[in-house]
User: Fold this.
Amino acid sequence: MTSSERDLVTALRNELAAIDPARACDRVAEAAGLGPDLGTREPAVTRLAVRLRRAADPAGPAFAWATSAEHCRTAWLRGRFLARGSLSLAGGRTHLEFVVEDDEAPTLAARLEEVGLPASWRIRRGKGVVTWKSADAVGTFLRRIGAAGALLELEARQVSRALRGELNRVLNAESANLQRAVAAAGRQLDAIAVLDADGRLGEQPYVVRVVAVGRRETPEATLTELAIRLDLHRSAVQRALERLARLAEAEPTPHDREGRAGMMRVHA
Assistant:
């Protein structure tokens, strides 16, 4: 990731760690999500763990996913993400994963599916890895656990990146079209020169000759621009240019050569 992307991920995690649950049950749930071993040394997360443990009632009930309310489950998931989750934005791709003990991975994946956020899981180097690679799924999860501010910045960057990608695609397409048009115009001018040199150009129908003159005068013009300039239909211009190209590729007939020789004798 770039430094900008790393800064955004840090800001997102700091935003989540700064949330102070109002309900006692949510504090218990988030502390349970953090677990006894944080798996991170981030100061904001460490301070959160200390704060939640200090606020915990030793005689209070423990967190139980099956019987907990939705808001308690959300608090638990927030704690689990801060303790065992990571977010990657490298290369324009959004990737979120939890790295947990191997036996916890299927349980965590089942809990996520239960709250409408199905994720894939696998075992990697002896650890359980629960993963989302969909930007929509990651965004929904982060929004649900309270990362509203940083998520807006993340989404803005994704939109900006998508717009830049679309703009580059359009520019590349336009550049390719322009290169093809220039190459086609060059071939057309070569064909006109060949036909003019052997006398066949003067034998062509009026529209073909007009198009040939127009192409010579405006070699950079598109078919549409040439048609407007000559007050012809675009299809007529295209057919004329195609005819010129075909004729130039074909060898002159004896009649063509005799006609050319006759014209040279007349001019002489």
Confidence is low (pLDDT under 50) at residues 263-268.
